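queue> pop job 88
queue> type: inverse folding (structure -> sequence)
queue> payload:
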């Protein structure tokens, strides 16, 4: 049996905009996702997160579901516009009270709360003032983080500042596929820096607690051993991974990435002292992993004239590896997860890692053998990484519930628990029962 340490943390994850609903209740202000989703054509099925899974009203039932599965931890995100409707200034206690109630309910069931302070729902007034490409958003985030921390620090030990800043910066400001829908590559690079700066400022504001950040590194492999393909892998590794990891762990942007981006930005937005703030010591690093990437230097990765997500890597092409795919079109390769974890532990001074998201979307209702196979393979990859010396301490399945899947709306289901969005009925899938048994056994 592939067993894990008795202290290994078994959890599941969600995010605020994807499940909470109650979009205009108790003083909550608009987020960039409210505005983005309301614009025709931005979301595949024309839907919004206005109701989503109605978790705001059903959180007690959802926590009971978690307890029934034996979850030891629950990773959720706090909605900034619910706590601070304008992104600055007055804090709405009604918003904080919701998270106080949620945390208390989790603790009463023996489930550790793992809040993430930012999972993409920036208050719209801050976007109107420039968004993450504007430097002032970083201290505003630190102020918000301090307010939430002050309210919950007596009950919460582990805090994550940002979820996947790569998506926030590049999908939000380069390709426009995500909120706020801007296509400004230079702004995306500024957003990278100010997201990291906000993380560092927030970490300082939450001193005394355990603080980490969650990234979604890409395991990029060259299609062949040619110099062209090797350079393509280097470029993607640079703008997907090292542009975040090196400032966080080495207090510097990689020289080759700065050179790759010279035609986009000169990094004039980086001020003296910023990198020292960003490189504040981390208690843990969260890793979100879904699919690997095989890359080639053989041509454009996106249609001409349309900004790509990998700014500065316009000649890189993503290659089909011939593996099975999920309904998101993502190739399934669990080896990519173990190799990625080993690489992070080898190349950076990481003392504690958690897989903070891992899962798959399939066309399923309740019987989901494909998802079970996906999770089984990736948990075996985690076990392999531990055997190879990686300090992996926990695993959070994505996602607890079927939910609003960003620009895909409700067309993609990642949940361990099926949600009938018309009735809000929850039904645990076969994968939920399988995962509960994994937790009970402590392994596979």
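queue> result:
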């Amino acid at each position: 049996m592939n067993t894990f340490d008795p202290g290994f943390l078994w959890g599941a994850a969600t995010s605020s905009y994807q499940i909470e609903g109650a979009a205009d209740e108790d003083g909550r202000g608009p987020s960039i996702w409210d505005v983005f989703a309301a614009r025709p054509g931005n979301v595949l099925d024309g839907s919004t997160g206005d109701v989503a899974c109605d978790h705001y009203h059903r959180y007690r039932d959802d926590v009971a579901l978690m307890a029934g599965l034996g979850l030891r931890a629950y990773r959720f995100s706090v909605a900034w516009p619910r706590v601070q409707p304008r992104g600055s200034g007055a804090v709405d206690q009604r918003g904080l009270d919701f998270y106080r109630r949620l945390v208390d309910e989790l603790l009463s069931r023996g489930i550790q709360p793992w809040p993430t302070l930012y999972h993409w729902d920036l208050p719209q007034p801050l976007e109107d003032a420039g968004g993450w490409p504007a430097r002032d958003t970083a201290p505003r985030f630190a102020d918000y983080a301090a307010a939430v921390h002050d309210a919950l620090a007596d009950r919460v030990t582990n805090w994550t500042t940002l979820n996947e800043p790569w998506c926030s910066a590049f999908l939000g400001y380069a390709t426009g596929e995500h909120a706020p829908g801007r296509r400004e590559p230079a702004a995306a690079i500024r957003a990278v820096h100010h997201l990291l700066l906000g993380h560092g400022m927030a970490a300082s504001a939450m001193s005394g607690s355990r603080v980490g950040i969650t990234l979604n590194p890409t395991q990029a492999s060259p299609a062949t051993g040619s110099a062209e393909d090797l350079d393509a892998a280097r470029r993607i590794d640079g703008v997907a991974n090292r542009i975040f990891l090196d400032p966080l762990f080495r207090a510097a942007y990689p020289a080759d990435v700065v050179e790759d981006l010279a035609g986009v930005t000169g990094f004039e937005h980086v001020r003296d002292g910023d990198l020292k703030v960003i490189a504040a010591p981390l208690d843990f690093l969260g890793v979100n992993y879904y699919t690997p990437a095989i890359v080639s230097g053989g041509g454009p990765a996106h249609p001409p004239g349309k900004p790509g997500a990998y700014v500065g890597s316009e000649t890189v092409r993503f290659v089909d590896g011939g593996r099975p795919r999920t309904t998101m079109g993502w190739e399934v390769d669990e080896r990519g997860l173990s190799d990625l974890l080993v690489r992070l532990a080898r190349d950076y001074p990481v003392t504690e890692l958690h897989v903070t998201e891992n899962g798959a979307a399939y066309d399923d209702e309740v019987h989901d053998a494909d998802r079970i196979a996906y999770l089984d393979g990736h948990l075996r990859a985690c076990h392999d990484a531990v055997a190879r010396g990686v300090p992996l301490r926990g695993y959070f399945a994505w996602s607890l519930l079927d939910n609003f899947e960003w620009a895909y709306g409700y067309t993609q289901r990642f949940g361990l628990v099926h949600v009938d969005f018309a009735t809000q009925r929850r039904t645990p899938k076969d994968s939920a029962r399988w995962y509960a048994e994994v937790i009970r056994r402590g392994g596979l």
